[in-house]
Structure prediction request, 343 residues.
Amino acid sequence: MNFGDLDLPTTWFVLIGVLFTGYAMLDGFDLGIGALHLFTKTDEERRLMLNSIGPVWDGNEVWLVTGGGALFAAFPEVYATVFSGFYLAFVLLLVALIFRAVAIEFRSKQPMSWWRQMWDVGFAAGSVLSSFLLGVTMGNIAWGVPLDERHEFMGTFLGLLHPYALLLGVTTVALFMMHGAIYALMKTEGSLHDKLRGWINHTIIFFIICYAITTMATLLYVPHMAARVRANPWLFSVALLNMLAIANIPREIHHGREGQAFVSSCVAMIALMALFGLEMYPNLVLSNPETAHSLTIHNAASSPKTLAIMLTIALIGVPIVLAYTISIYWIFRGKVKLTNVSY
Prediction:
């Protein structure tokens, strides 16, 4: 397929951003429900929380795999640098995701309380750790990492755990908790539904506090991000969209419109990811302090022929993934009910 004068590196930058945004929206509420899991007290409530994501959680992770594959195909040098430099962090992330998946599947295999409590803790810990590490990764990408002239990572694992990255990690956990609470509210009824209504405002307040601190820290201590906003004042409109979407969530909850509240939460996440991408462009991995060593969409991209071939494949594959996702959510719409085959 001939794409003519299409800017292929920029197109792939946008496409990968869309894939990771899809992952954040979909697996974000899975991880958020996991982070909230231990706040429920009875076995029935915990089973309801698990079964609210039961049919969809594994399919949601397809977006992460697809995004990682797209990154490898379009920007192989970024893939190599990030996965080697963040090796230990990504191993921990993989272990957390695997342990979380095992906990979901194994929890209800035995009726003993100690067995279920063990997997409940595993599910919650895996969800919180996964969310936190994803945020830490984004924090380091925004802050910048030490790269040499060959684009090789020169830092250490402990060097990745600086205050700004940790702050973004906590903010990501808060965001997913809010998102997960809204999704669980949409999928449950009865006493658990009422309990979740009480949690929503707490999760929103927690996220707003974290978001405000992160925004101030970004403006004060991440000068290249702040400079991009000052040079392009229209970026404030994206931030405004995010704030309006978050402000709309309590309003929709108050009127009993959980579906619209979930849509508002998704819009907030889209706005956050869009703002992050727009502030980073054209950088993919910023080198700090030597910005000349940064990986960009131009010096890290595959050949034009490779990008064109992969874009053709993406135009076929991504709609299939999207159609599968939509069909699963449509089939399993409505309130969750416990049966003898439930988790």
User: Anything to note?
Assistant: The first strand starts at residue 283 and ends at 285. The radius of gyration is 20 Å.
